[in-house]
From TrEMBL:
PROSITE patterns: HTH_GNTR (PS50949). Pfam families: GntR (PF00392), UTRA (PF07702). InterPro entries: Bact_HTH_transcr_reg, Chorismate_lyase_/UTRA_dom_sf, Tscrpt_reg_HTH_GntR, UTRA, WH-like_DNA-bd_sf, WH_DNA-bd_sf. The lineage of its organism: Bacteria, Pseudomonadati, Pseudomonadota, Alphaproteobacteria, Hyphomicrobiales. This is GntR family transcriptional regulator. GO terms for molecular function: DNA binding; DNA-binding transcription factor activity. Residues 21-93 form the HTH gntR-type domain. Keywords: DNA-binding, Transcription, Transcription regulation. Coiled coil: none annotated. GO terms for biological process: negative regulation of DNA-templated transcription. It comes from the Bacteria.
Length: 249
């Protein structure tokens, strides 16, 4: 969408907001509505602060406050000297077992991956414990950058015993599709989460600064007969991924 079309869309949304709400909050809601309707795709650029202010006949203070609220909520990424970029936040429910590709498609984006390595190897001590296998077993170890509409949002390392996936060549873009084709689709998982700072290698793959916050998950996936089919560690860019919990009393 062109800057002019976007400004027209925001202007119409602004006219629909309640007049008793502070103007910067109305502007925030109008821009958010345009983003959520996919009028601007993740990674797309908004007009500059001055252009927005002049086109909408608003003060730059009002525009700046609205953009700051959107940045706090992760809908925008702002860097000094650059135009404002629409964020690519993805919501991940922790109540259902879904693949990365399913999560991304559910958000209206196209999943993809950049393979870093695929190999058959002996398991590490950590993998032996996580998968419940012996040192003499062999595993397929896969590492890749996961993308949404071409933007990197996670680095994923998966390990699967070769009795389930005998060759890494069987895995293309989706590990779960490869497992399903061999009737080894996971049915449940145990997952733990923690935070960590991005290493220099993480920063290179995820296009972020070293030390930027990451959300790290470790997941063990089980078959119906309780065999452990996959151990996976995923490092998500903290600025683009939201984990959603449903709590009931």
């Amino acid at each position: 969408m062109s800057d002019l079309s976007l400004i027209e869309r925001v202007s119409k949304e602004l006219a629909l907001t309640a007049p008793d709400v502070p103007l910067y909050k109305r502007l925030k809601s109008a821009i958010e509505a345009a983003i959520r309707s996919n009028a601007v795709k993740p990674g797309g650029l908004l007009p500059g602060e001055r252009a927005l202010a002049e086109s909408l006949s608003l003060s730059r203070v009002t525009v700046r406050k609205a953009l700051s609220l959107l940045e706090e909520e992760g809908l925008l990424n702002r860097r000094h000297g650059f135009r404002t970029e629409v964020g690519s936040r993805v919501e991940k429910s922790l109540s259902t077992l879904t693949s990365f590709s399913e999560d991304i498609r559910a958000r209206g984006m196209e999943p993809g991956c950049i393979w870093l390595s695929k190999q058959i190897s002996r398991p590490s001590p950590g993998e032996m414990m996580a998968l419940g296998i012996s040192a003499s077993a062999t595993v397929v170890r896969m590492r890749r950058v996961r993308t949404a509409d071409g933007l990197p949002i996670a680095v994923e390392s998966s390990t699967v015993p070769t009795r389930f996936i005998p060759s890494p060549d069987l895995v293309r873009d989706s590990l779960y599709e490869a497992l399903a084709a061999r009737s080894f689709m996971p049915q449940r998982a145990i997952q733990r989460m923690r935070s960590r700072a991005a290493s220099s290698e993480d920063a290179l793959h995820l296009n972020c600064e070293p030390g930027a916050p990451l959300l790290v998950t470790e997941r063990r996936c089980f078959l119906p007969d309780e065999q452990i089919v996959e151990y996976c560690e995923t490092r998500y860019k903290g600025e683009v991924y939201d984990f959603v919990f449903e709590l009931q009393r």
